[in-house]
Protein: AB hydrolase-1 domain-containing protein
Organism: Ophiocordyceps camponoti-rufipedis
Amino acid sequence: MAILAALLLIASAVSVVAESEASHIRSVLYVGGHYEGDEMVGQMYVERLRPVNGVLQQAPVVLIHGMGMTGSNFLNKPDGGRGWASNFLDQGYEVYIVDQTNRGRSASHLGGQTPISFNASMVQDRFTATQRHRHWPQAGNHSQWPGSGLRGDPIFDALYAAMVPSDPDPIRTQTSMQRAGTALLDIIGVPAIILGHSQGGLFPILMADARPHLVRALILLEPSGPPFRDGFTGGFHPWGLSDVPLAYEPVVTDPLRDLLQNVVPAPDDYHTSCILQAEEPAPRQLVHLIDKPILVMTSEASYHAPYDYCTVAFLRQAGCRAVEHVELAAEGIRGNGHMMFLERNSRDIQLLVHDWIRVLRPYLQDRMLGSSDRYRQSPRASTVCQAPAAKDPW
């Protein structure tokens, strides 16, 4: 049966037409590992891709995939089209792609726990063919997934073949990803733009919280949420956005006691209610994120459409002054689901991300040209701190 399944997969792949990737120089590193006894745990696989014609953008981009996925998400699309890594390379960015700790090419150490796997039916209902069952109000708007989105379709099968089991322990995952992510930022040595998707959308926040001077901006593609309760797993996030500590002011020592909650009713039938901090006493502030440019992006038909606004509201309430919520439908980009960067119009969405980054770029270019005095006077100068360049291990 295994041989037959493999032959069927090979046969189905024939109809997926591959498009060439952007030319690049590739190197590989593992970061963040530490020894427990005679074993190394917590290490993270990283690919560094550099445009062959040289880097044109000062801030590198770090790409972090979501649950059940690996960094291959950003290399090629299941229909054979170019992934976002190639788009960023064409625009002159240096690109870093990771496999989350305990996932893919990052060695797995789960302490005997059984990893989480997604079955094909769940992937169809949540990601690729949401219009069939309409489990949330916006699901029927999904039209951008290439192919039928069903098991047996070659494009669906290409996606599902690339999916891998995930660590079932959110605290272990968040702790190890923060550790490995900050190790990567230390190696990069200059402020980076961190992009995370879904479950991976939390890690830019954890990395920026630990290394604020090494994070230029955060791009959160439908990050895990909403605050305090997870809309996908149903789990409780005691620190609001996470299961592990975040730096608040006043200091939070016991989140169950210090982060007082308030339920805000849903504004309409298309959205959920939100759990935010109570307004009295004054909401605790995320002190390391206050000045960071943060983009939260939500597609029209995703299961995140009913509640991503809660994540945005939580960030703003916690003092994050530079949060922007881009809802793709409002930008004229219609029909996308949760896997927006793998869908037919993924290039249009990536260009929207690039345009958002370009708003930050003039100050970066001033610095590249040596205009340090003018840069220091810019209103965004406080959000970028030049770290000493680390020795390049690549």
Residues 346-368 form the longest helix (23 residues). Residues 2-380 form a domain with the Rossmann fold fold (CATH 3.40.50.1820). The longest strand covers residues 24-31. Residues 219 and 295 are 5 Å apart (CA to CA).
